[in-house]
Amino acid sequence: MPHKRAKRSVRDTQNKETGFNNAPSGYRIDNEQLPKGAMRVLMGGQIQAAYRDKKKRKRGDSDKDGDKSKAEELKIRPGERLGDFHRRVDDSMRRDINSTIRSNTSEKAAKRMNKKLEEEASSKETKKLADKEKRDKKQREAAEAEAERAARAAQEEEEGQDSDGETMKPVKDFAAAERVRLNDVAQAPPSLPRMKRQAKRYGVEDSNAGSRVGAPLMRQMELEKERQRVINLYRAQKGKRLEDWVSSKEKGE
């Protein structure tokens, strides 16, 4: 029976004759079929080229048929009036005319848009350059002002005067002074003669004006004047109200 296995002796004899590790009988690598997915990937370019050729041939045939039918339609028919024939010709050519107009309009719009974009880009570039020049100018002015201020301060320091024209006192060497012991208490507040001089110069009559460190003298003057004005206004209103009340009482009596 062919479907049964041969005897051991027969199989050993065949192995000695043919050998071991032989390829399967009737198998060839060139007859191996690839999977469909791999075939689509490998043959994709060829399939697309064939499809494009087919589509091109079909379009050419349709154009030829359309040209023939259009040429036949653009002939005057028997019994047709000339005005009707002209209208039919205009209707058949209207699509081409509209497409031509649209293409020209789109080209003009594209040119206008490109021109507008170029103008905007140039204006932005000009604005950037102007802003950069302004920043550079401000930086130069600030540097010059700082240099001038430093030179003035150095000159005043050499002359021994401050910005207000006051004679500057020599700088004290606090390192050489006696160290303050722990738990020492100041017997009096510090004296600020410069603040007092400025208070007298601006006409501030507050006795404590020079004792407050950093008090804006001009602001204090303005507040004092405003306070006095409000007080006078209140007194005037109060006096007028009192006079009106007294006059009304006298009339009632």
Automatic annotation (TrEMBL):
Residues 98-107 have a biased composition (Polar residues). It comes from the Eukaryota. Residues 60-97, 115-155, 166-182 have a biased composition (Basic and acidic residues). Residues 156-165 have a biased composition (Acidic residues). Residues 1-219 are annotated as: Disordered. Signal peptide: none annotated. This is Uncharacterized protein. It comes from Wallemia hederae.
